[in-house]
Amino acid sequence: MAAATMDLSDIVLVLGNVEGIENILGLSENRRYEFTPTEGNDGSAVNWRGGQPVKLTGPCLCFMFGQHLYSPQGWVGGSSPDSDDCDLQLAKDNRTGVSRRHFRIDISPGGRCPRLTNLSRNAIRIHGAGGTIILDQEESVDIISRVTIDLGQVLVRAWRPVLSREQERRYNTNVENFHREFMNALPKPAVASMAPTLDIRFGLNNAVYKREEEGYTGAGSFASVMKVKELRTGKSFAAKVPHYKTSDPAGKVRKRWESLTDEFQKLVKLKHAHIVQAIEILPGRNEIEPPWLIMEWVPLDLDSMSLNDHEILVLLRQVSSGLAFMHASGFAHRDLKPENILIHEHTGGFSAKIADVGMSKYNIRGKMQTYAGSIAYMAPEFWESELAYTNAVDMWSFGIIAVKLLTGWESISDGLDEVMQPSRTWHQNWIRNSIIPRLDLTPAGFEPLLRRLLSEAPGERLTASVCEEWLRTNAQELISIQVGDRCVLLAGEERRHVRSIHPTLSTTRADNNPSPRSTIPDTEPWGSPR
């Protein structure tokens, strides 16, 4: 039982008003979390309630820094009676819909507040002042104010105490210690600390990676990518390394680790010929050094390539294939742009690979609510006052990339970085004045495809799988060569024996070889009159 004189800065989260459970203190070892404060004259009797107006009934429980924490990852709540598996038992068994390990409570490295992560396939509803949030498996939410955790038949009220300025300072110290202990507990290869320099990391199966001279290929807002060589095999790889400072607090160190680990886990699930593959993730020699995400080495991106018309068609089909796999796996990329499409050249052609899935989102319900992406490639629904978009945002981005490639539009992003406060009205005007007029410059055979990709209504856009099939079946009909001043379509064996330095996309058809009608219904593009 927690003492009434406890320091409120030691409390991570208080739980009360439990519904759907009889005698919660009698389950497993729950009594160790019991919290029974008494009235006092120092204001603590009010502050521990978190300022909530609702009446608190029944026993209260609380998670505290350094107490009854058996894993540095946090406290687990569920229906398992095994205290080694579940810290707080919230149901006698899983017949109530509460999984054996249903959720985890820890500290958010970004928000310095309690964070709830759904560990179960059963959804969790979080009811708060701003409405209800539905968390699917592996999704998290920061608890910044009082909420009700809805597990179906079981409901639990959760909140943080109100802290004084001095208590808040001590709380922040506890938070940093929590993150530091988390990082120190991460498993590391036995030889990791033996690396003689920052340029060398030891991996699995005796792998040794060393940064190559002049090996940096690019830098983003979060990380840089450098070329490394595995010394035993001599094979080259890419290493994504987050930006860091030696003075970074433990919370920021953990946030870097979680961001890179999240990207690694996504790539592991997305094994596809047209998605960059992850190899392993390597921690630093100490808590300060950043981790390395080892990936396959693909030196070029789409912006660095000059493609002819046939290659453009191949690339678009490959990218749509990768997107179709992502979407079928429950992921949306959300930041598709030329810099995130890498090109691996090989004998007889090339292979396009979708990269930088760090912004991607797994959401089996299809509705997402987080602002993400690059302005030039963002779909109109990102600018709605209430965000609720689907993976159709990727198809809009794909359509913009297609327009860029098919019209040779090199300056698509010119001036966009200077826009200080982009808005829905600004975006609408930019689409009408800059994007829609470009459709007239694209090959006629592509017009139905692009109109469907750039539809204002997300539900009317082509899916990635339909787009891939359209490109596969229509590619041969869209390739032509220029003979004198006539555009001639060659078919089958004839095409194999004719090469053109500048192949073009056909805007006309030879009378003796008419093309089939497109199976894509014509749809007006975004902003067109209806």
TrEMBL record:
Catalysis performed (reactions): L-threonyl-[protein] + ATP = O-phospho-L-threonyl-[protein] + ADP + H(+); L-seryl-[protein] + ATP = O-phospho-L-seryl-[protein] + ADP + H(+)
SMART domains membership: S_TKc
Catalytic EC class: transferase
Major location (coarse): membrane
Compositionally biased tracts (Polar residues): 503-521
Molecular-function annotations in GO: ATP binding; protein serine/threonine kinase activity
Xref: PROSITE patterns: PROTEIN_KINASE_DOM (PS50011), PROTEIN_KINASE_ST (PS00108)
Residue numbers spanned by region Disordered: 500-530
GO cellular component, one term: autophagosome
Enzyme Commission (EC) number: 2.7.11.1
Leader peptide range in chain numbering: none
BP-aspect Gene Ontology terms: autophagosome assembly; protein transport; regulation of autophagy
InterPro entries xrefs: Atg1-like (IPR045269), Kinase-like_dom_sf (IPR011009), Prot_kinase_dom (IPR000719), Ser/Thr_kinase_AS (IPR008271), SMAD_FHA_dom_sf (IPR008984)
Membrane protein topology class: Peripheral membrane protein
Subcellular location as annotated: Preautophagosomal structure membrane
Keywords tagged on the record: ATP-binding, Autophagy, Kinase, Nucleotide-binding, Protein transport, Serine/threonine-protein kinase, Transferase, Transport
Domain Protein kinase: from-to ranges: 211-471
Name of the protein in question: non-specific serine/threonine protein kinase
Organism: Tolypocladium capitatum
